[in-house]
Design brief:
Blueprint: E1 27-34, E2 49-60, E3 66-72, E4 76-80, E5 85-96, H1 99-107, E6 109-116, E7 119-126, E8 134-135, E9 140-141, E10 143-152, E11 158-163, E12 167-169, E13 175-181, E14 185-198, E15 201-215, E16 218-232, E17 235-249, E18 252-310, E19 316-330, E20 336-343, E21 347-348, E22 354-361, E23 364-371, E24 378-385, E25 389-391
Parallel strand pairs: 3-7, 3-11, 4-10, 4-12, 11-13, 12-14, 13-14, 14-15, 15-16, 16-17, 17-18, 18-19, 19-24, 19-25, 20-24, 21-25
Antiparallel strand pairs: 1-2, 2-5, 5-10, 6-7, 8-9, 20-23, 22-23
Length: 392
């Protein structure tokens, strides 16, 4: 399902205005290097030069202190290192035609360092200025970028906020929070995570618990344990997950292997490779499950549900559907009981099904029986309105 993504563009003829300045407890240095850029095909209008200011701060921390990073318009790169220190190196880059113009931009940018008994913090502030930013009529603008490079202990907790830039985090051993908007993030690993992702892409390699919200984004992950997410207008590709609870709207989900999945959604698509227990409560959603092992509970309207293979030894399948067609592929060796009632729908079942009730009255169909042994423990219960049931 194709979904439009909104990513902030600031025009082809000019650049985004941004960057940052002073610090209460950091050290700032200014560097200069020049280069030429062509703007609108006319270098006579503006020859850009690169001006750089750096900030450096080292905190001595205990394992209980939270590391807080809040940035805008640039990269955040978090690496692990010393068990007792957090080292923050920040580079602010301004492309401007003159030193005077660059200094005006630097004056609007502030990098603030602070600390307390429970935290250490580096934060970017940009002063509001109506005259600062893009000059359309002159045909040029300045470009700004603020990049964080941080080295911290893997045992400490981390809280990262980044706007209009990418975030990269090495494997940590504790909890972290990522608030990422208009940019991408990558996490190598952590014990648990709170995520707020919007208008960007995310990748998680290994993670214990994941909670949070995703909107207009994409998330890929190799391995998750416990997942509790609220998503909209997004795409998620999960290789492996243990327990998932999802609220979804206008999303595409693809999960290769999940132990337990509960999803409540609308206007989406769900594809599962292999699942033990699944509960689906969705409207206007197509569901495709390749292998189901233990139990399934479907409550759907206006969509199609297809289970390719229901494994031997499953406990129960409960189906409630409106304007939904169901296809259930049951392993030929499986013995089960069937209790099916439909209105304005057809029921197609295996010829080997032994029926105690096989009744059609007007628009209604009722079918009760078993396959294999009458003492079979597995059960399939179906209640459908305006939908067909195919058991094969």
């Amino acid at each position: 399902m194709e979904k439009q993504r909104f990513y902030n563009g600031f025009g082809k003829a000019f650049f985004v205005a941004l960057c940052f300045l002073t610090s209460l407890s950091g050290r700032a240095n200014t560097e200069f290097a020049s280069f030429s850029v062509r703007l609108n095909g006319d270098t006579s209008k503006w020859v850009a030069q690169e001006f750089v200011k750096t900030y450096n701060k080292t905190f001595t921390v205990s394992p209980k202190q939270l590391v807080v990073l809040a940035n805008k318009y640039g990269k955040v790169d978090v690496k692990t290192g010393s068990e007792k220190q957090v080292v923050v190196n920040i580079k602010v880059t301004v492309d401007a035609s003159t030193q005077v113009k660059a200094d005006k931009t630097f004056d609007l940018i502030n990098i603030a360092f602070s600390e307390g008994p429970d935290f250490v913090k580096a934060e970017t502030f940009i002063e509001s200025n109506n005259n600062w930013g893009i000059n359309v009529w002159s045909g040029h603008s300045d470009r700004y970028q603020i990049d964080y490079e941080v080295i911290m202990p893997a045992e400490n907790m981390l809280d990262v906020s980044n706007r209009y830039g990418n975030t990269k985090i090495m494997a940590l051993k504790n909890w972290l929070k990522v608030d990422q908007k208009y940019g991408d993030f990558r996490l190598d690993g952590a014990n648990s995570m709170t995520l707020n992702l919007a208008y960007g892409n995310g990748f998680i390699d290994q993670l214990g618990g994941l909670t949070g919200e995703i909107s207009y984004g994409k998330l890929n992950s190799n391995s998750l344990k416990d997942v509790d997410l609220k998503t909209k207008y997004s795409e998620l590709r999960l290789t492996k997950a243990d327990n998932c609870a999802i609220q979804s709207a206008y999303d595409d989900y693809e999960i290769q292997r999940v132990t337990n999945l509960t999803i409540n959604g609308k206007y989406g698509e769900l594809v599962i490779g292999d699942v033990d227990n699944v509960a689906v409560d969705c409207n206007y959603t197509d569901v495709r499950i390749k292998k189901m092992n233990t139990s399934a509970d479907f409550n759907t309207s206006y969509g199609d549900v297809k289970v390719d293979e229901i494994r031997a030894g499953f406990n129960q399948i409960n189906v409630k559907g409106n304007y939904t067609d169901f296809t259930l592929g049951v392993d030929p060796s499986v013995e089960y009981h069937l209790d099916a009632k439909t209105s304005y729908g057809d029921v197609n079942r295996p010829n080997s099904l032994k029926c105690s009730v096989d009744r059609e009255e007007g628009s209604k169909t009722e079918l009760v029986g078993y396959k294999g042994s009458s003492s079979a423990k597995s059960t399939i219960k179906v209640r459908l309105n305006y939908g067909d049931l195919l058991i094969r």
